[in-house]
Design goal:
six-stranded parallel β-sheet; 2 domains; Rossmann fold; UDP_glucos_trans; transferase; EF_Hand_1_Ca_BS; glycosyltransferase; about 15% strand; quercetin 7-O-glucosyltransferase activity; about 450 residues; 17 helices
């Protein structure tokens, strides 16, 4: 009997590709064949970032289909992207499944769709392929999405998803309190984009109802209330490459591994690691204030500065900044983040609080300084600071700026109080125990392997 064949489709964003590709690596390690289907645009970026690296298991094949947009068009215009891919991708995906299934020894045993690509399960169902859903976010966020009908009934949002007021609410007694900002669909672009995204969420939610497996890159130990509230949701995280002694893949930029040699030269628990994911954009005033804040801390720092992180690419750093910090600061365009956070020299993680970054920091026992930018990042910040108590929030001044003095103050607080590190190490043990034999995520994974094989 040939080994099982799984088709996997992530959402078109780096924070969705990385954990699903890691999940695919785990499947491949257990003898499964995986066809991983990105959009053409992101497939090209992933392949380029992997050049010269043997990071993928040999049973994984990377393929792609068009997203309906031209290569030069802006994929951060989510309204346009969604409208285009809904027109083009269902037909292309159907054709891909047909083509794969026409080869006798290649037939697909299961299709795994990203939660944001739930519409693709309609295609799988039409093609008689069993489906599963993978969520790259927190269980709390998934619970929020599935509570949308109740939020409408309770008058928290209207039928288009727009918050009715700035009220606080809870979707379960012991979950983090939420406010309208956590209705992430209402904070993406203009009103037209928000409506398009909300309609997509509703379509995805309906398509996912009949699916047997709903995976979430989280653990029962970290989010017991959310998993209790939505028992169909199963923990599968944290999906970290070091759990299988491998390398993480799926980046859209080529990583600068030289920073690991620089970290080797630093004292244990001395370095501030600052990274803001793949989408955060800072205006020039805030960017410069962050630079001056890192300088003011007078500690070693490793700062990931994407080429497109600020609105002004010219003279982005304050005058003389690079020369003044040259002896203790490193600015790089992209980092091998999981390896960085696992390095003994890292003291704290100044983060945008994307869920992957949150899981990676927690899994390495690193305290946080939280700088959320959009979407679910504010909810993740509340988990980090208010629920798990492994980090601090920044306060903004009357102009909405996080000042250099505020940065220094919060860095000093987190690194000056051993409580944060002790809590972070406790949380690390809870997270990692879930993927060990007998843990909740380990059991989910084993059950899925058996289900696909039957």
């Amino acid at each position: 009997m040939s080994s099982p064949h799984v088709l996997v489709m992530p959402g078109p964003a780096q924070g969705h590709v990385i954990p699903l590709l890691e999940f695919s690596q785990c499947l491949a390690k257990h003898g499964f064949r995986v066809t991983f289907v990105n959009t053409d645009y992101y497939h090209k970026r992933v392949v380029e970032s992997l050049q010269g690296k043997n990071y993928l298991e040999e049973q994984i094949r990377l393929v792609s289909i068009p997203d309906g947009m031209e290569p030069w068009e802006d994929r951060n215009d989510f309204g346009k992207l969604i409208e285009n891919f809904l027109q083009v991708m269902p037909g292309k995906l159907e054709k891909l499944i047909e083509e794969i299934n026409s080869r006798e020894d290649e037939k697909i045993d299961c299709f795994i769709a990203d939660g944001n690509m739930g519409w693709s399960l309609e295609v799988a169902k039409k093609m008689n392929v069993r489906g599963a859903v993978f969520w790259s976010s927190s269980a709390a966020l998934v619970a929020l999405v599935f509570c949308i009908p109740k939020l409408i009934d309770d008058g928290i949002i209207d039928s288009h998803g727009t918050p009715m007021s700035m009220q606080m609410f809870r979707i379960a007694p012991k979950m983090p309190e939420m406010n309208s900002r956590d209705c992430f669909w209402a904070h993406i672009g203009d009103l037209t984009t928000q409506k398009i995204f909300f309609d997509l969420l509703e379509r995805n939610r309906r398509a996912m109802m009949a699916v047997n497996f709903h995976f979430c890159n989280s653990t029962y130990e970290l989010e017991s209330e959310a998993f209790t509230m939505f028992p169909e949701l199963l923990p599968i995280g944290p999906l970290i490459a070091s759990n299988r002694q491998g390398n993480s893949a799926g980046y859209f930029w080529r990583e600068d591994s030289n920073c690991l040699k620089w970290l080797d030269q630093q004292q244990p628990s001395s370095v501030i690691y600052a990274a803001f994911g793949s989408l955060t954009i800072l205006d020039q005033v805030q960017f410069q204030e962050l630079a001056l804040g890192l300088e003011l801390c007078n500690r070693p720092f490793l700062w990931v500065v994407r080429p497109d992180i600020t609105t002004d690419a010219n003279d982005r750093y304050p005058e003389g900044f690079q020369e003044r910090v040259a002896a203790r600061g490193q600015m790089i365009s992209w980092a091998p983040q999981q390896k960085v956070l696992n390095h003994p020299s890292i003291a704290c993680f100044l983060s945008h609080c994307g869920w992957n970054s949150t899981m990676e920091g927690v899994s390495n026992g690193i305290p946080f300084l939280c700088w959320p930018y959009s979407a679910d990042q504010f909810l993740n910040e509340r988990y980090i600071c208010d629920f798990w108590k492994v980090g601090l929030k920044f306060d903004r001044d009357e102009s909405g700026i996080i000042t250099r003095e505020e940065i220094k103050n919060k860095v000093d607080q987190v690194l000056g109080d051993q409580y944060f590190k002790a809590r972070a190490l406790e949380l690390k043990e809870k997270a990692i125990s879930s993927v060990r034999e007998g843990g909740s995520s380990y059991k989910t994974f084993q059950n899925f392997l058996q289900w696909v094989k039957t």
